[in-house]
Amino acid sequence: MLQSDKATTLPPLWSIDRKMTRQITSHENGTSISSSPLLSSPVWDSTPIGKSIYLRLCQCEQLSPQLILEDKVFRSAIRLQHGSTYLTQLKFVGTLIIDDETQRLTYVIDRLQLSDLTKNEINNHHSLLPNKQLNGEFLISIRCDNKNSTTTNSVSNLIQEGMKIIETYCRSSLPIELHQFSFLHGQMLSRLSPSINADLSFDLLTIKNSFKLTPINSEYVQILPTALLKNLSSSTGNGVYINQPHFGYCGLDRMSKNKILLILENDPQACALPLVGIWISGIVDVQCAFVWAACLRYCMNSSLKQRLRTGVNINNITQQSFLLACYLSTSRGQCDFYEVNSMTTNSTSSSSSFIIDYDLWTCSKKIIMPNPPTSHSHDTNVNTQLPYDFEFKHVYDGPKMHALLGAHTGNII
């Protein structure tokens, strides 16, 4: 870490008033997060130099998430459900694809995993499925029944499980995987006579929180020269930072007045130094899901002990903002700076809390095909082997939405 020769004569860069710090307890795991101390002097000029940008996981409201189920997976699931003499636990394996231009979420199911257990063996197994998914893949729980057994309690339990999984991941320091910010599960009801007649439905839980990015002048931001900064700023530097999305933290160097030290995401210094924001590299456009995820991780990572806030007072409400340094892969080493505000942060001058809001989506489709399919069938769709596409619809009311609202009550992070 670089040090200033005049460090011993400088006043403190930040002030932590113990009387102004309130503990906010999480209902999930009993951990507590202190409110962010206020910066004694700003390290950037908040004056906007352009139009603000808004980031969401589902960026375009007109393009709802979609799901694609491969035909081979559907046929295998039907065969296993009706042909096995064992009690079969079935899960689909999916990947999340986000379109670079529209940022639309597409969940693709292209294989499945299962574990066959006899009824005598089931009590001896805590996990029915081994964790064998590849990088970027995730498991999707599927309820396979021959009769409709969905109840309000089962829906509520699934939603609570999804919220717990998402929030635990958001509080962690694990590498960013975009599918981890949503929870997908489904149900398949089927019968074989006289034809294969299946009703498939999927429910999707996504994070609703959004962020406002306001471009600011880069001349007032001072970054300490380090090897990491050299790699990020050089158009011929480390290709890993240019061609693949990366993010880290912006910390205040203790020995340099108002100078920012760029820190890698997994650097232990991130848990010790006072932080003022994040840096991102290897992306084409700042308006993308990875930037949104990095902003959310900065707000919720329970390992980050000192997030400093600017304390800009607007209409008697202290807005908690942080800095974003963005190195686009097309900018040839140039950095764009933004001031970031959470649009769903409830903060006051003495405390802060971050509440996760959720969107609930659902989709369904009835699939009918001959049993068994024959080459003599005149139905051209029988042997086409096309994937089945599902269009998610936003849930605004009904039992599922009531279950979400009930599960969400009191979940303050």
Textual characterization of the structure:
The chain has 2 domains: 7-57 and 212-354, no CATH class; 66-209 and 356-408, Cytidine Deaminase, domain 2 (3-Layer(aba) Sandwich). It is elongated. The protein has helices at residues 71-83, 152-170, 227-233, 239-243, 289-300, 399-408, and strands at residues 14-15, 23-25, 32-34, 38-39, 53-55, 66-69, 87-98, 105-117, 137-145, 182-191, 195-207, 211-216, 222-223, 246-252, 259-264, 275-283, 312-314, 317-319, 321-328, 336-342, 345-347, 352-354, 358-370, 388-391, 393-394. Strand 21 (345-347) and strand 22 form a beta hairpin. It has 6 helices and 25 strands. The protein has 413 residues and is of the alpha+beta class.
Helix content class: 10-25%
Taking the sheet with the most strands, its summary is: 9 strands, mixed
- Our Rg estimate from Cα atoms comes to 25 Å
Mean pLDDT: 76
Which fold name corresponds to the CATH topology of the largest domain?
Cytidine Deaminase, domain 2
How many distinct helices? 6
* Low-confidence region ranges: 1-35, 117-130, 311-318, 345-351, 375-384
Supply the number of structural domains: 2
Characterize the overall form: elongated
Per CATH, the class of the largest domain reads: Alpha Beta
Within the largest sheet, what's the order of strands?
24-6-8-7-9-10-11-23-25
Broad structural category: alpha+beta
Please report the total strand number as a whole number: 25
Distance between the termini: 33 Å
CATH architecture annotation name of the largest domain? 3-Layer(aba) Sandwich
Beta fraction of the residues? Answer: 35-45%
